[in-house]
Amino acid sequence: MSTDLASATDPDVVLVGGGIMSATLASLLGVVAPDWSVTVFESGAQVAAESSDAWNNAGTGHAALCELNYTPAGADGSVDIAKAETINEQFQVSRQFWSHLVRAGLTGSPKEFITPVPHVSFVTGDAGREYMRNRYTAMSASPLFAGMEHTDDPAELAEWVPLVMTGRRPGQAVAATRSVAGTDVDFGSLTRLQFAAAEDRGVHVHVNQRVTGVRRRTDGRWAVTVRDAVSGEERTVRTRFVFVGAGGGALPLLQEAAIPEIRGFGGFPVSGMFLRTRSPELVSAHQAKVYGQAAVGAPPMSVPHLDLRLIDGDHSLLFGPYAGFSPKFLKAGSMFDLPLSVKPNNLGSMLGVARTEMALTRYLIGELLQSRSARHRTLTEFVPEAEEHDWDMITAGQRVQVIKRDPATGRGVLQFGTELVVGGEGTIAGLLGASPGASTAVSAMLTVLERCFPDRIEAWRPALQEAIPSYGRRLADDPALLAEVRAQTMQTLELNG
């Protein structure tokens, strides 16, 4: 990777940000347009150091196997699994593409970025037990969730998740589902592997280079101004396509580009914190990822979970999240990021959310005021015999939640998800928001190709289908294809145990 800005030339494509999204788009362009010149600008000293870093994201490999906020219950008790199916489909697409990269020798061993870990959903109380039973009935009917197990037997649960069950009050109603098809994904490692392979085929990856300006030229191309973080030197390159995959930094750059499509969009930064333990005794007693239910009235980001993580060869457990607040849009950002993002065209959206999201405001204030002992008490609701001295607090990445204008009402709404913004007749695109984020990176970047290059997508389809056999089809509607791609990806990614 280069830190020399002088070597940057005018490429066909500029990718802003050195995270999983830009890495994935670079890999996809290598499949469909290997003759295009591609340049990546990352403001930090290395790629994958912000939201894609393994310690800065949950790393569950979001497949909707255990995340209860993707399967809401209706007033009649029925459970809607539509969002869970969509996310699982997207994750299957990612797995297929990662398998292609492994088969093509474009990454190292799959064990460097993905490992099998059971995913468990856990609830307490009579209402929770009924919900879990209804959820299991709905999900087990879908081929995407075949093999999911269900129990409300405390003895069986003690075998599945002993750390969660030991010391729990006798007679408490409990229930859970488990999928042994779950994974843990180190997106930092995956990002670095993809960029290394991209550089081998001629992609230029520049670090310590902050994009400070994006301006449309009269000839339709984009002038991208870049400042060297060390020397302060500036240079402008011209390109016909720009993708802004800069995490929280995407919003101000799209505003700088002055595309009409970004009008009305704002961002609200939330930082996440986790309790972590590396105790061999505790880690060995919890070989799973367990998701619970958020408290009544709490936002989706507050769903408690106890994750087994494998990072840099070491196992640890993370529990959280605990929310924090900083006006920065990136961990390495500026304290002025939030105020400078407020523009006349999004002020109404921002004020509208400030009025309507009082529950989020109260949640964040409560989180910020929590003492260490209060945070530990939250942990003991999940892990009854947790000892405070075994756990330390770490700060994860910044997440900038999307604020957008509701076209129906004109009011601002807060969106807990991702939003692709495309402008300039498809010559510029950017991704805003967070979660499920990295796990659905391939689907998100396929959407970039489809929306920005509609005149080329049919010619690219054979190459995309070779890399992603289910491209253009729904796996939920084709059990035979689902079985085929699932078997192939499990074998290629070495997920058979």
Automatic annotation (TrEMBL):
GO terms for biological process: tricarboxylic acid cycle. It holds the Pfam family Mqo. Its cofactor is FAD. Coiled coil: none annotated. It catalyses: (S)-malate + a quinone = a quinol + oxaloacetate. Pathway: Carbohydrate metabolism; tricarboxylic acid cycle; oxaloacetate from (S)-malate (quinone route): step 1/1. PANTHER family: L-2-HYDROXYGLUTARATE DEHYDROGENASE, MITOCHONDRIAL (PTHR43104:SF2). HAMAP family: MQO. NCBIfam families: mal_quin_oxido, PRK05257.2-1, PRK05257.3-2, PRK13339.1. Belongs to the MQO family. This is Probable malate:quinone oxidoreductase. The gene is mqo.
